[in-house]
């Protein structure tokens, strides 16, 4: 299953139990979605790009959501919700948020 796109599955939607120290992800294989348990170290997050909705995972504003408005080298500017204030982060401090 190397190279497939995976999406983490919420606990409420899991059809399988994860193995110890693993997470449940959904992958599409042969046009069918399938849930698997995988070690998180095998997952590579999508690189953020301008306009993406992101969540802050590092830094003092952890958990806040915003829109990536500028990306240069390893640094970015995020417009935080709900007030529209701008903050500076490193790329390691943010993760893309995917909509269903």
Written account of the structure:
By secondary structure, the chain is mostly beta strands. It folds into two domains: 6-42, no CATH class; 53-96, SH3 type barrels, CATH 2.30.30. The chain is 0% helix and 44% strand. The protein is built from no helices and eight strands. The strands form two sheets. A five-stranded antiparallel β-sheet has the order 7-6-5-4-8, with no helix packed on it. It is elongated, with a radius of gyration of 16 Å. It starts with 5 loop residues before the first strand and ends with a strand.
What is this entry, summarized?
With 100 residues, this protein is mainly β.
Helices and strands in order:
Layout: E1 6-8, E2 23-29, E3 32-38, E4 53-56, E5 65-72, E6 75-80, E7 85-90, E8 94-96
Order of helices and strands: EEEEEEEE
Total of helices: 0
Estimated radius of gyration = 16 Å
β-strand percent reads 35-45%
Structural class: mainly beta
Number of strands: 8
Helix content: under 10%
CATH topology of the largest domain: SH3 type barrels
Quickly name the level 1 CATH class of the largest domain.
Mainly Beta
Strand order across the largest sheet: 7-6-5-4-8
Can you tell me the number of structural domains?
2
Largest sheet, in brief, is:
5 strands, antiparallel
* Inertia-based shape: elongated
Mean pLDDT: 86
State the distance separating the first and last CA atoms: 22 Å
Task: Please supply descriptive tags for the structure shown above.
8 strands; single chain; elongated; SH3 type barrels; 100 residues; mainly beta
């Amino acid at each position: 299953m190397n190279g497939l796109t995976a999406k983490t599955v919420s606990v409420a939607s899991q059809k399988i139990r994860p193995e110890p120290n693993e997470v449940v992800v959904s992958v599409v294989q042969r046009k069918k979605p399938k849930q698997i348990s995988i070690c998180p170290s095998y997952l590579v997050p999508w690189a953020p790009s301008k306009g993406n909705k992101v969540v802050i995972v590092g830094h003092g504003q952890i958990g806040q959501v915003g829109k990536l408005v500028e990306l240069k080298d390893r640094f970015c500017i995020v417009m935080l919700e709900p007030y529209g204030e701008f903050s500076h982060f490193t790329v390691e401090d943010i993760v893309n948020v995917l909509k269903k």
